[in-house]
Design a protein that fits this description.
The protein is α+β, with helices and mostly antiparallel strands and 118 residues long. The protein has one domain. It is built from two helices and six strands. Strands 2-1-4-3 form a four-stranded antiparallel β-sheet. Strands 5-6 form a two-stranded antiparallel sheet. The radius of gyration is 17 Å and the shape is flat. The chain starts with a strand and ends with a strand. The model has no long low-confidence stretch (mean pLDDT 94).
Length: 118
C-alpha cells in the first residue's frame, strides 16, 4: 500500500440560485491505496462525505448554502510513499510562480498578489 495526498476541491453553492461568486476550499486528504487509480476513487468517496448543508444550518455570508464536491485538483504520491507517514513526512506541495521579486516579497508577508499555481 502507498500513501497519497489528494487535493480535493469543495465549492459553496448558494441555495438562492444566485451564484454570483464561487467560494471554494482545497482540502488535502491523506489516502492509503494500492495505486493512484484506487487513491483517486477513495479520495472522491471521502470528499463526498463532506457534501451537504449540515441539516439546513450552513450559510456563507448569511446566505443558505451547501458544500459540493467539485473534483480532485491533483493527486500526489507522498514522500516515502511505501512507509506510514510520520512527523516530518512531506504529504503535499504547491508549485507557484510570481512575476517579480517585489511580488515574491509580498507573498512572504501574506499580502495580496497574483500567483500562478501549476
Amino acid at each position: 500500500m502507498n500513501w497519497y495526498a489528494a487535493h480535493v476541491i469543495m465549492v459553496v453553492k448558494f441555495k438562492d440560485d444566485v451564484q454570483d461568486k464561487y467560494p471554494f476550499w482545497e482540502n488535502i486528504i491523506l489516502i492509503e491505496a494500492r495505486d493512484s487509480d484506487e487513491a483517486f476513487s477513495k479520495a472522491a468517496e471521502r470528499a463526498r462525505l463532506n457534501e451537504g448543508d449540515d441539516n439546513n444550518s450552513f450559510t456563507w455570508e448569511d446566505r443558505p448554502s451547501t458544500w459540493c464536491f467539485a473534483g480532485i485538483r491533483k493527486l500526489l504520491t507522498c514522500q516515502n510513499y511505501n512507509e506510514r507517514p510520520s512527523n516530518g513526512t512531506e504529504i503535499s506541495y504547491l508549485e507557484m510562480e510570481v512575476s517579480s521579486q517585489e511580488d515574491f516579497s509580498r507573498v512572504l508577508k501574506g499580502e495580496s498578489v497574483v500567483v500562478v499555481c501549476h
